[in-house]
Amino acid sequence: MDGNVAPPPHDEAPPPGIGPRRRRSPLWAKLWAVVITANLGGFLVAIWTARIIRHGEPSPPVEQGLLAAYYGAMLLVAVLEAFLVDEVVFRGAFRKTHLQGRAPRFARRDEDVEELATTLQRSTVSFPFTLLLCLGLTYLVFNLVNRDFDTYYRRVGKYASVLRTTDPEHRTARLDAIAELSIRREPEVIPLLVRQLDRPGPEAAWAAWALGRFGDLPRPSQLFPPLVAASRRDDPALHREAVIALGRLQHRAVAPALQALVRADLDAGGPVDLRLLYGLGAVQVTSSIPVLTDLLHRGDEHAQRMAAWALAQHRDQRGGRAVVEILHERIFSATLPVRCAIVQALGILSDESSNLVLMKAYDEAAPAERVAMCEHEAVAMRPDGKADRIVLLMPRDIYGFKIIQSMAQMRATTPAIRRAVEPWLEARRTDPTATAAIQEAARSLLAGIRQGRDDRRLKTAAEVFESDAP
């Protein structure tokens, strides 16, 4: 017999406990599968949450639950991704050190050197940094799949949530939310504000005001139907705000309603709502001229100043030049603040005949009035009068300087007007009682008028033709 041992038959089973080991998948591969599954689930949560909050009207508790699920899914995905990065890049240093409790120790002969190196990694610093990086990346990816929901919620969604409340104690918060939405231009804002027009209470009036601020839209006429419908409601406050908003949006058909409200304020003896006058100046229909003329004589001082400004806005309308004579007649009997507004209005109209009226207004003014400051007029458009200010009658200048400034806008071209204007400007240029600003303005205007013609030789039509011939 030889010493070789015969191999066992092929069909003979190996002894218990002896056999090939089953290869287990590495931990990083399992984590990779978990991360992919978590991301897919997180995407579904992100899309579902964004759609319900954007297009639905969930109650505040439901909305808070949806947000908790959304941000919870984001955090969970980020944590799983951080564990995957720790496993692949740092060989599980955080898991082995902090979760499994493997403290650093000296290597024995039979110990894996790589395992010892892993326990010596500074996972206390690396893992938090990895988690923050993964959280930021997850935030960006989630907002990519749900069309930037976080930006929407920060700019619009949280205010929409406030507007869904009905508690009377939260009314101030709802009005503040409408004020914030009035300066947003996201597509969800207008439908949200239009829905507020049907709400009882001051929220509807504030929503009408807010919609009036959207004149910068490519097609502001889309706001006309809901505002016209709101102006026909029985609520006086809503009617007024809707009419003002339509005037601000230059809906010409609202002019009769604006005129009626001005008449009502004027006949009631109280101050006229300056926002109505701003609306009349914006819509620019000549049927407003009579009520503005009446207001120029009977209104309070601020209303008269606004009436002068509104009249000047009609300069491009057929028949609008008639306001020049209206302002000419009023300037000499008005108070100084109203005269300041009329002077600026005449400069806007730029009718050459106004030169003579402005010179007379300067000559009849007392020395102290010529150096008095002409202030601007600020109109607060918000219903409570605390914000959304529109500043008119700018810039601020002294009365004498503003007169010459308005004359510069209309110049003097006809011989009859020049014969009166040029000597007058020459006198102002050398007037020792005039301020340096008035003297310089007179000198500059006079030089401009003279530069526009040649006083030394007036050419006939034949001479002009001959000089132009080749």
Describe the protein in words.
This protein is mostly helical and 470 residues long. The chain has a domain at 27-104 and 114-147. It has 23 helices and four strands. The strands form two sheets. Strands 1-4 form a two-stranded antiparallel ribbon. A two-stranded antiparallel ribbon has the order 2-3. The longest helix has 30 residues, at 60-89.
The residue-averaged pLDDT reads 86
| Biggest sheet overview | 2 strands, antiparallel
Quaternary organization: single chain
**DSSP, total strands:** 4
Low-confidence stretches: 103-111, 116-121, 454-470
Main β-sheet, spatial strand arrangement:
1-4
Computed over alpha carbons, the radius of gyration is 39 Å
Protein structure class: mainly alpha
End-to-end separation: 136 Å
Give helix % range.
55-70%
Shape: elongated
* Helix/strand order: HHHHHHHHHHHHHHHHHHHEEEEHHHH
Work out the strand percent: under 5%
Count of helix runs = 23
Core attributes:
470 residues; 3% strand; 23 helices; mainly alpha
List the helices and strands and how they pair.
Blueprint: H1 27-55, H2 60-89, H3 93-99, H4 113-119, H5 123-145, H6 149-163, H7 171-181, H8 189-196, H9 202-211, H10 224-231, H11 236-248, H12 255-267, H13 274-283, H14 289-298, H15 301-312, H16 323-331, H17 336-349, H18 354-364, H19 367-370, E1 373-374, E2 377-380, E3 389-392, E4 397-398, H20 399-410, H21 415-429, H22 436-451, H23 461-468
